Amino acid sequence: MWDGGSEAAPAGPPPLPPAPAPAATRARSWAPAGGSAPEIIGHLQENYYNLCVEKSQKINYFILHKLQEVDKEIEKGLEGLTLNIAGNSCLMPVERVTGEDFWILSRILKKNLYINGLDVRYNLISDVGAYYAARLLQKQHKLIYLNLMFNDIGPEGGELIAKALHKNTTLKYLRMTGNKIENKGGMFFAAMLQINSSLEKLDLGDCDLEESTVHLGHMLKENQCLVELHMCKHNIKNCGIKQLCDALYLNGSLRYLDVSCNKITRDGMVYLADVLKTNTTLEVLDLSFNRIENAGAKYLSETLASHNRSLKALSVVSNNIEGEGLVALSQSMKINPTLSNVYIWGNKFDEATCVAYSELMQMGRLKPDNTDVEAFVVDGHVYLAEVSNGLKKHYYWRPTYGAACRHSANAGFTLVPVGGHL
């Protein structure tokens, strides 16, 4: 029975496929290197295995392996665990999680008190899995982190998840990135955010939303809980950034705004520079892959030098900015003591730019971990080279070696934390 609020109840979950092959055949469908399935030890593993057999559902041994890891952590007495079943792992064979797999998974997680995070990014759960994700949000009152990015969820699945959050009071962080929920699904999220009082981080980037700023702007005027909002690839133009800025005059909670990969030009920077004169909460601003050019960079520089003392990080990567605008930004850093992180790669460097940022680093004003360039000298001339730092370098992919959560590569998470690993 659906308990998602006063909205009309859906007719039921999307149809599941026919029952799979017998158990003996299922057991050989996937196994870790070496050919043998993992030994069934631990409460979660046993529940998952038994439920698959009971429901004649194919056993996903990738899930089984991941549950084994969590069972070991639970045996140590640890709580607040994240179950990571990301489908883009480079370190072991992966059998992508389907909607049917998620159905079983949601059943065993429903009353688990040890897990408060679930990461199923880059899988195939689709609208079938979205139905059960919505049910999980209604039943599991410990879940604070849910990562569904790139899972083939459409508008119907987006609607179900958004409606489930009308009454949910525990989830703090949701990633819907890359799921094509379109404007229909986006409208339900905008409406939900005017009601929900717990969600603090939301990523709706690359969801095939077009000019969603009217509705999300209305939401920002009402919502005083959201601290991080990602609106990458929303086709935002200058009129859209104006609508967001109008909302930011009234919003007192948003600390991280990502409007990267849109169509914002220098005219849009007039509105943003103006709101930054009075806004005291925004700390991280991602303008990467727009086209603000010299004029837009100078508008921002003037505000950062004369008024704003709250912004900590600014990314203007690939914005067609030339030396004049880049130097202006460097000069504002000499005056503004708060701005600590600046990312400029992908623009048009001249020697004045290279010298200016080299001087900032030499004097200690710009630390090497807080920018995406480093200086070097050849034949008496200063140049800048790219380094792998940024606001969210490992947001969409995981390195094949080393830590995936290096602070210098994912500075946005460090600057705007929402408790623990969020």
Quick structural summary:
The chain has 422 residues and is an alpha/beta fold.
Rg result:
23 Å
Cα distance spanning the termini = 32 Å
- Roughly what fraction of the amino acids lie in strands? 5-15%
**How many DSSP-defined strands?**
12
Total count of helical runs of at least 4 residues: 14
Low-confidence stretches: 1-11, 16-36
Multimeric state of these chains? single chain
Q: What summary fits the major beta sheet? A: 10 strands, parallel
Keywords:
single chain; alpha/beta; 14 helices; 12 strands; 36% helix
What does this structure look like?
It is a single chain. The chain has 422 residues and is of the alpha/beta class. The protein is built from 14 helices and 12 strands. Helix 5 packs parallel to helix 6 and helix 12 runs parallel beside helix 13. The longest helix is centred in the first third of the chain and has 15 residues. It starts with 22 loop residues before the first helix and ends in a 7-residue tail after the last helix. The N terminus is likely disordered.
Please give the structural blueprint.
Layout: H1 23-26, H2 43-54, H3 61-75, E1 81-84, H4 99-109, E2 115-119, H5 126-139, E3 145-147, H6 155-164, E4 173-175, H7 182-193, E5 201-203, H8 213-222, E6 228-230, H9 238-248, E7 256-258, H10 266-275, E8 284-286, H11 293-306, E9 313-315, H12 323-335, E10 341-343, H13 351-362, E11 373-378, E12 381-386, H14 411-415
Parallel strand pairs: 1-2, 2-3, 3-4, 4-5, 5-6, 6-7, 7-8, 8-9, 9-10
Antiparallel strand pairs: 11-12
